[in-house]
Amino acid sequence: MRSALARWRRAAAIGAFTLTAATAAGPGLAQGQAVDTLSDPDEGQYPLLLDGTLGGGGDLKEDEAPHSGLFRFPTILDPWQGFKDDIRETTGITFGGSWGVLYQSYSDVPPGAQSDAVGQKFTLNLSRDMLRRGTPEALAFDLVIEDRGPLGTDNPPLQAGIAAGSIVPTAATWGDFDLGVTQAYIRQNLWGNKLQYTVGKIFAPNFIDAYPFFDDNRQFLNQSFSTSPTIASPLRGAGAVATVYPTDGGLYVLGGVYSANSSDTGWTVDEVFDTGELFYQLEVGWSALARSGVPIQARGPMDSNNIHLTGWYKDAQPDASNATLRPQARGLAFNANMTVGANLMWFVRAGLSEGWVNDRAISVGFGWRPSEQYSDLFGLGLGWVRPNSEVLPEPFQREQVNLEAFYRFHLTPNLAITPDLQYIRDPSLNPGVDSLWVAGLRARVTF
Description:
Blueprint: H1 4-23, H2 56-64, H3 78-91, E1 93-106, E2 116-131, E3 139-150, H4 157-163, E4 177-190, E5 195-203, E6 236-244, E7 251-259, H5 269-275, E8 278-287, E9 306-314, E10 329-340, E11 344-354, E12 358-368, E13 377-387, E14 400-412, E15 415-425, E16 435-446
Antiparallel strand pairs: 1-2, 1-16, 2-3, 3-4, 4-5, 5-6, 6-7, 7-8, 8-9, 9-10, 10-11, 11-12, 12-13, 13-14, 14-15, 15-16
């Protein structure tokens, strides 16, 4: 395990790099009001379901879209953005990044667990059209470089929230790994987006039962409202995904196959051939066209009206380090999210599974954005999770209820501050208490 001094040196270097990129360009103009991201009614007929913000391409699109600032503080990145535009024009390379810090405090923890945790995330995204550059059917290569870890605490929020007693992470992707390549893949959209595919090292939760509020860099933190807690999803590794729109009415079919073994900064292609252990997904859904302005969801693809059913199956992993949690598993997940007017979106999600830690889950909630500060977002979610009695022994089988509220507040177009509050009733992994409060504060700067 790395020493605290090494972690702080790493974080200081990353922070210095981020702040240098954000300030060296000099003063600029504030970004203005929202733009219509589907201004041409003949384009964008099929949402880009394979381009979410936890992937490189979608992250770049969202960060570079116009954003409001509550106090209209100007961005200082206009010259920097001009420099990036020049690089894109001359080389075809689009790049950008972000640095986030998250603090969480836990009200009632078991003996030996942390009462608070701080984590940091550094992300650098690069993308280049390799073939057919400048056309809707360009073959793009995306690369994501990341670094995550605790700041001044033994564990980051991902591990600390579970140790505090929650059966689902209170900050699902705020974990710990060294600087390295976490995603590297090609992607392409064909025939007016009627066929979309991605192949390479990918982040599987970006595609499995995804919906607009699944990004805990920008939205909900608790896993009940991001990725489904009933899905035994792999994380980063070899995979291939494709979406087909067989009709003009919004019907789509999404299929994916992934290595069941994950590696944050390594490669898992060899493990696919060595073990044959895979994760399979088939999703059938309906997606409406979103023809409003900047979407309520902080996500590149405008998929604010969606209903889908996802089936999945994971091979057993007998050689995994924790074999008791790696049996053969299968399940179903349901999602419905719809907009009401221009600024409100509600969601209902549910899942059931066999062979995984949690075998039942339901969550409901909504997100609302102010019309003027259109990059701000208020979210409220209520979720229920039931642990699998065949996986977890007594007394860790309590059904857990999760409530979360947050307000993402764009101080400037490139800096967002998000206060977050979670209430957990009957935390499954802390049977000695009836409730657990989790207070959090997230800051994220883009460059």
